[in-house]
Amino acid sequence: MPLEALRYDITPAGLHYLLIHFDIPAVDAATYHLSVGGRVRNPLSLTLAEINARPSTTLAVTLECAGNGRARLSPRPQSQPWLGEAVGTAEWTGTALGPILDEAAPEQEAIDAVFTGMDRGIQGGVDQLYERSLPLDVARREEVLLVYAINGEPLPPQHGFPLRLIVPGWYGMTQVKWLRSVTVTDHEFEGYQQAKAYHFRRVDGDAGDPVTRILPRALMVPPGVPDFMSRTRFLNPSVVTVEGRAWSGRGEIVKVEFSHDGGATWSAATLEPALSPHSWCRWTIRWDATASGEYELCARAADAAGNVQPLDQSWNLEGVQNNAVQRVRVVVAAGGDQTQLPADSL
User: Fold this and answer.
1) 3-class SS at 301?
2) pTM
3) Which CATH architecture has domain 217-345?
4) Is pLDDT at 27 greater than 90 in this prediction?
């Protein structure tokens, strides 16, 4: 997602970030059905029409890739080289998963729900369908949806047509697309994407901690105009409104702070209400940029659970959960004078 798209409360579908592990499968909506089985007393097979006929919910949800910020790490872990733009907020329409699970009637020993997509490929030497799981108590939460529309339109192929999972507050790897089945199990799921991938670990051989809920992050729309190669911003001396968005999957955003000097001093930004408990909120601050010079702009968010963005990068083998503050280099000069840009950045 281009950072300019932070201006939108709801990200246009074509600007929303995407991560597709394997191939986009070809799906015939006329023959599609979702299987709900495993350790249940009443297995289900639901057509798309039957799912669409159930009570619907539309919810604004911010999704972020667990690897957002990976490209800032050094050495950079091998995977998608996200800088900070792997995020987007959409209005997702679907039906709650909980009542469907209740109708299937999980057995007393059931503890997990495994979500299997139709996208197949090889990762880590394992031939697999993309699969993730959730504890049953999480899967039954009222905000967890089986989704068939984005921003009022049917899901396009790249966003999981005809049906996908949306789990507000959790990183993007949880939101299984092209959903073919939900399987209830009496044991923790040990598939590759659950047991091997998406773990925060610093050394080989360490099991690490599984990635779950989104850590707080604030991003700003970079002010001024960019240098093509370095992305340094150029701004005429002025008083400007800096704006951005902040979000967390661990609690409501309660504070966003802005710094023009690389984090040496901080000022509180103004927060606007979020569209839903699961979406980002807008923040703004007036910055007096009337003095010519070079600045490093930063923004950091804090949530109601006490989580605050760190100033430093959090290196790990997979490059996940790196929510260090955004840093934007700005040169303030009359007429956008690029002669103030050091030669080593050209």
Assistant:
1) strand
2) 0.93
3) Sandwich (2.60)
4) yes
